[in-house]
Task: structure prediction
Amino acid sequence: MTAWQRIFCRGLGFILLGLGLSGCERMQAPQAAVGQFFPELRVHLEDGREAPLELPDSRLRVVNIWAIWCPPCREEMPSLQRLADSTANENLQVIGLAVEEDGYLLAEYLRKYRIRFPVVRINREQAESRLALRAYPLTLLTDPHGRILARLTGAFDWDDPAIKNLLLRLAQKQDMTPSDIEAVFRANQKAVAERRQQP
Result:
């Protein structure tokens, strides 16, 4: 919040207090919103140590926040791995933030299903407060400077050529609006839902 917003909020707070109301928090932008920088996070590494999350520089990042107990999360993991494999030589990095307390359980899951892209653990409280996580899975696309380009809720088929083409365009620093990005992913979800309804 800027200095003038704090001054305004302070004055508004006295007015609201006089009216028996409260709150200026609503004026603050939501955490991890499109256009903001990816927030600083503490994560648990594979060896159990806690450390700041370090996102790779100069790359488009596909940051997927998921949980083992979430069926749609598990369903999209193999296609996320294929995306990571097929774009290994591109300016793009797939990263997983697993909301999981048990490091051993996560390691076993990743080994069993051959998930090789970087995955670290994050606690649920931090995911909900710093990333505004309300539903699983959540994917944040960030540009090479760490600015959030899109917030995408729900699972996707990452094998979709339209999604891969969009990500490669973003990785090459081609400008796209958040609504254009979202449209591609929503079309993907619609197509997946229609395929499931077919006999």
Q: What stands out?
A: The first strand starts at residue 42 and ends at 44. The chain has two domains: 1-28, 31-197. The chain has six helices and seven strands.
